[in-house]
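Example (one chain per record):
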Amino acid sequence: MLFERGILAAFARGERVRFLTLTDGSKRGTMTVHDLSEAWENLARTLRRGGPPLPRPPKGSGKEAQAKWRRQCKARKPLLSEYAMVLEVGLTGQGRLHAHVLFTGRYIKQSRLSAWAKQAGFGRVVDIREVPSGDAVAAAAYAAKLASYVSNQGKAVANLKRLSRVRIRPVRKSHGWYPGGLRKVEDELGIRKAGGSKDPGPWVLITHDGKGRAIRQKRL
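Predicted structure:
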């Protein structure tokens, strides 16, 4: 629900939402959770700045060239606003890490994003697609896709521990993705009782196909 509500909240703000998949950039599939997180921070920083730093004209190029460079730097607009990211460990082969990201921001050409992702530490295989604006069914479908990656982590937890140097954090989000986060979602759904104590359940995690049909369920 955190993913779906974040998408719908972005639609309500008039923002576009895109679904991005990033891959392990190492030759042998040895990226750790720390490595992937660091690569994401590098890429996110580039996107928030509107792209890689613009090369500054060399000394002696003149005041006009320097002034033009400063104008170009100031004119750049952020390409990334808010995001929610899920880590996926492949269940076959070498168990390479993937990052699946829902994010808001401006249009980015795929070829350009691929080059920036590689510079940040990811592989060149980058898939990006837009969640149809205002389409609640599509929002539910993409949210269910990320939820399914989270629910599947049970089978890959050993790999995830192996690929983590410090701690396992399969889900990450920026502060503004859905203000209040999961706690607010629980409050809105009535899962969390008044006074802040959490309802003991039992609860069941249900993954649906975006059309109201449950395709997987798991008792929590």
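Caption: The beta strands are 17-23, 83-89, 97-104, 127-131, 171-173, 204-208, 214-219.
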